[in-house]
Specification:
The protein has 106 residues and is an alpha+beta fold. It contains 5 helices and 3 strands; from the N terminus they run H-E-E-E-H-H-H-H.
């Protein structure tokens, strides 16, 4: 997957999010409110933007149902969080784990 294809399925949700470094600390500028969030955007999204976070999780489930592996979903969201976050969020409803669809090739 090249740079122009990366994030194409989640670009509408991740627009404005920018990752940077402040010394050794990863900082992500929230694309919704502009706040600089240290290390992980997940707690910020869950507490400050729960409706938007729900939309992100819904997109995780849509992509997973289309056969995407966790890591490919992570790439679609421009590495704003790890694949384990995606797994944890959709585990109870993961369509692949329950044999509803098959994983697509990367």
């Amino acid at each position: 997957m090249n740079e122009t294809e990366r994030g194409a399925l989640a670009i509408d949700l991740t627009d404005g999010f920018v990752e940077a470094r402040e010394g050794a600390v990863r900082v992500i500028r929230c694309g919704i409110c502009g706040q600089n969030v240290p290390r992980s955007v997940v707690p910020h999204m869950k507490s400050d933007h729960p409706t938007d976070w729900t939309r992100w999780v819904d997109r995780f489930i849509e992509l997973r149902a289309a056969g995407y592996p966790y890591k490919k979903i992570m790439w679609e969201f421009r590495w704003l969080f790890s694949w384990s976050v995606i797994r944890r969020e959709i585990f109870p409803n993961d369509p692949l784990l329950f044999g509803q669809v098959k994983v697509t090739e990367s």
